[in-house]
Design goal:
This protein is α/β, with parallel strands linked by helices. It has a domain at 6-268: 3-Layer(aba) Sandwich (Rossmann fold), CATH 3.40.50.150. 29% of the residues lie in helices and 15% in strands. It has helices at residues 13-29, 53-58, 65-69, 79-87, 100-107, 121-140, 157-160, 184-199, 215-225, 263-278, 376-379; strands at residues 37-40, 47-49, 96-98, 113-118, 150-154, 172-176, 204-210, 231-238, 251-257, 285-293, 315-317, 322-323. The strands form 2 sheets. Strands 1, 4, 5, 6, 7, 8, 9, 10, 11 and 12 form a 10-stranded mixed sheet that branches. Strands 2-3 form a two-stranded antiparallel ribbon. Strand 6 (172-176), helix 8 (184-199) and strand 7 (204-210) form a beta-alpha-beta unit. Helix 1 (13-29) runs parallel beside helix 5 (100-107). The two termini are 17 Å apart. Bound molecules: S-adenosylmethionine.
C-alpha cells in the first residue's frame, strides 16, 4: 500500500524537528576530513512546493516552517537549517521546502556520497528530476564530484540498508523516515536497525517517529533504546494537546543512535524556542533524554534526579532528560548550567555550510494535480489514533495533521 505522499505534510512541525536535527548531524559529520555515506531509506520527492495543491490543501507548513519564517532571535543552532530553507527561496517568499535528500545534498560535501531509496513511483520520478537539477546547478558552479555522488534507487529502503553497510569509508549517516501508515513499519525500523548495527555498529542512525496513542508508537522509543548501540538520544516536540478524537499529529520524535556528543547541548538551546514559536497550547513541550549501553549495570537511579524506571536490560537513561512547556520551557527538570539556568552556556554555533542553492522549479510538486481515484486526502495521511483521517485543515488553521 503506497498511499502516503509527503507533499501533503512538507514543512510541518515534524519536518522542522527532523530537518533541523538532520542539519546538525551533517555539520557534525563534516567536521572530520573523511568522506561519509548518507543513506536515506525513505527519501520522498526531495523538494516540495508550498503553493502546490497538496501543500495548500492541508496547510501543514503553517504548523512548522510557516511560523518560523519570520521568527526573530533565533537560537544559533537553528540558523543553519533556516538559512538552508531560505537559500532555496531567494525572493524572500516562502515557496519551496526541502526534503531530506535536498538537505543532505546541500549539507554533505562533494566527496560524500548520497544513497537514496524511494518506493513510490511518482515520488521517485520527481526525486530523480530534482537531483538532476541539483547536479546541473552544481556543474554550472564548477562543482563536480568524482564518480557518482548521488544514487537513487526505486526500491525498499528497509531491505536495501544492509547492502550498503559497512560503507567504503567506514562513516555513515542514515536517516530512517517511513510513513508509519502500517503498524508493521515500527517493527521494520527496529529490525532494519538491528541488522544495520550488526553490520556497522559505529554508524550514526537517525529515526523519525510519530508520537501517538497507539501502542506501537508508545512502545517504540523503548524498543529503540534496547538496540545494541553504544549511545542514544531521543528528542520529542509536541505542539499541542491532542483533541478528544485523537486525530492529527501533534507530536513527533527523532531518535538518534550513536549521536554526536554535541547534539544534546544544541537541542537544549533550541527546543524551548521551537516550543515557544510552534506551540499552540499549554500541551506544547519538548523532551530530551539520552542513554548509554551499560555492561552489567543494575541501577536505575539517575544522578541529579529521582529514581526512574529502567529503559532496558543493560541500559539507563541519562540524567539529562528535560521537559518544556509553553509557559516555562525547559524549567521543570532544569539543572544548574542547563538551558535557562544561570550558568547555561550557549552551544558554539556550528558553521553553516549550505552551498549556493540550485533553484527548484514548479515541477517539484508545484503543479496542482488531480486527486487520485481515492480522494487526495487519503494520500496525505500519516497514521493517527483516529484511524484513516480526513484532510487536514485549510491554510491558516493551526492544527497540523500528519
Ligand atoms: N524523508 C523524507 C523527507 O524528510 O523529506 C520524507 C519521507 S516520507 C515521510 C516517507 C516516504 O517513504 C514516502 O515518500 C513513501 O513513498 C516512502 N516509502 C514508503 N515505504 C517505503 C519503503 N519500504 N522503502 C522506501 N520508501 C518507502
Amino acid at each position: 500500500m503506497l498511499s502516503y505522499r509527503h507533499a501533503f505534510h512538507a514543512g510541518n512541525h515534524a519536518d522542522v524537528l527532523k530537518h533541523f536535527v538532520q542539519v546538525q548531524l551533517h555539520l557534525y559529520m563534516n567536521q572530520k576530513d573523511v568522506p561519509y555515506t548518507y543513506i536515506d531509506t525513505h527519501s520522498g520527492a526531495g523538494v516540495y512546493a508550498l503553493d502546490s495543491f497538496q501543500a495548500t490543501k492541508t496547510g501543514e507548513y503553517d504548523t512548522g516552517i510557516g511560523p518560523l519564517w519570520n521568527a526573530t532571535e533565533v537560537p544559533a543552532p537553528l540558523k543553519p537549517y533556516l538559512d538552508l530553507v531560505k537559500s532555496m527561496n531567494p525572493s524572500g517568499k516562502m515557496r519551496y521546502y526541502p526534503g531530506s535528500p535536498y538537505v543532505a545534498d546541500q549539507m554533505a560535501r562533494l566527496d560524500d556520497r548520497l544513497r537514496l531509496f524511494e518506493l513510490h513511483p511518482a515520488d521517485v520520478k520527481i526525486l530523480h528530476e530534482n537531483v538532476r537539477k541539483a547536479e546541473a546547478h552544481k556543474a554550472e558552479q564548477g562543482e563536480r564530484a568524482r564518480g557518482k555522488r548521488v544514487i537513487i534507487e526505486h526500491g525498499d529502503g528497509f531491505q536495501s540498508l544492509k547492502k550498503l553497510l559497512p560503507p567504503p569509508s567506514r562513516r555513515a549517516l542514515v536517516l530512517v523516515d517511513p510513513p508509519y501508515e502500517v503498524k508493521d513499519d515500527y517493527k521494520k525500523v527496529r529490525d532494519a536497525l538491528e541488522e544495520a548495527l550488526g553490520r556497522f555498529p559505529s554508524g550514526m542512525y537517525a529515526v523519525w517517529y510519530p508520537v501517538l496513542q497507539r501502542m506501537e508508537s508508545r512502545q517504540f522509543p523503548d524498543k529503540l533504546k534496547r538496540l545494541p548501540a553504544k549511545e542514544w538520544l531521543n528528542v520529542t516536540l509536541t505542539i499541542s494537546t491532542p483533541g478528544p478524537d485523537g486525530v492529527g499529529l501533534h507530536s513527533s520524535g527523532m531518535f538518534i543512535l550513536n549521536p554526536p556528543y554535541t547534539l544534546e547541548a544544541m537541542l537544549r538551546e533550541t527546543m524551548p524556542y521551537l516550543v515557544q514559536v510552534l506551540g499552540k497550547d499549554s500541551g506544547a513541550r519538548f523532551t530530551i533524554e539520552r542513554g548509554t549501553q551499560l555492561t552489567g549495570a543494575a541501577s536505575a537511579r539517575l544522578a541529579g534526579e529521582g529514581p526512574r524506571a529502567p529503559v532496558g536490560n543493560a541500559r539507563r537513561a541519562s540524567p539529562l532528560s528535560g521537559k518544556g512547556s509553553l509557559r516555562l520551557p525547559g524549567q521543570s527538570m532544569l539543572r544548574e548550567g542547563e538551558e535557562g539556568g544561570p550558568a547555561a552556556k550557549p552551544a558554539k554555533p556550528a558553521t553553516p555550510a549550505p552551498r549556493r542553492a540550485w533553484r527548484p522549479d514548479g515541477n517539484a510538486q508545484g503543479k496542482p494535480q488531480a486527486p487520485a481515484s481515492s480522494p487526495a486526502r487519503a494520500e496525505g495521511k500519516r497514521p493517527s489514533d483516529g484511524g484513516p483521517r480526513t484532510a487536514g485543515p485549510r491554510p491558516g488553521s493551526r492544527s497540523g495533521k500528519r
